[in-house]
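Task 17 of the worksheet. Students: predict the tertiary structure of the chain below and write it out as structure tokens. Keep your answer in the requested format; marks are given for formatting as well as content.
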Amino acid sequence: EAKIKEAAKRVFTNKGFAGCSSREIANEAGMNVALVNYYFRSKEQLFNVVFHTVMEDFMLSMKDVFRMKQPLETKVRLFIEREYEFITKHPEIPGFIVSEMNRCEMGDTNKQFIMDEIAETGIFEEMHQAQLKGEMRKIDLLSATLILMSNCHFPFIAKGLMQEIHQIDEEKYAQQLVLHKQYVIEMMIGYLFPAK
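Model answer:
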């Protein structure tokens, strides 16, 4: 069962739900389709298991940072650092999540669990309190999420495009991402926590 899940994760994250078949997953796992269907009943059921696992992995360090007993400014800095660290190791994950979350027929995959799990860390209330005290710029949650996620994820999602436009190789782009991470940290800290 674990072997099937690992194979399915590789196939789904590279091709998406619509771009692959149960046969491809079975081939990747070195098994036959009947065995895959025996354990997971359908491609959709297997996808839901994989998607939930990917989201849990993706959110793990985020939740750890948000639970820390640190100032909010430190949490934002650490969040950005950890996002870049995770996505550098798993560059296919942001594109996979975005494309699959945008797919209308995701079935019974519960998208709300994402915000619920983050809310359980207390970060949203902490942001609200910091705004009330004047420690953080007043900004709605959607805008804060858009700014943070776009600056952390887009450089990885658009890697091929950026390399082509700027005619740079893998090594040079990797170096640029390290520099970009610092720009994002400075920009976000400066914007969210303006000097008094």
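Marker's comment: The longest helix spans residues 43-67. The mean pLDDT is 90.
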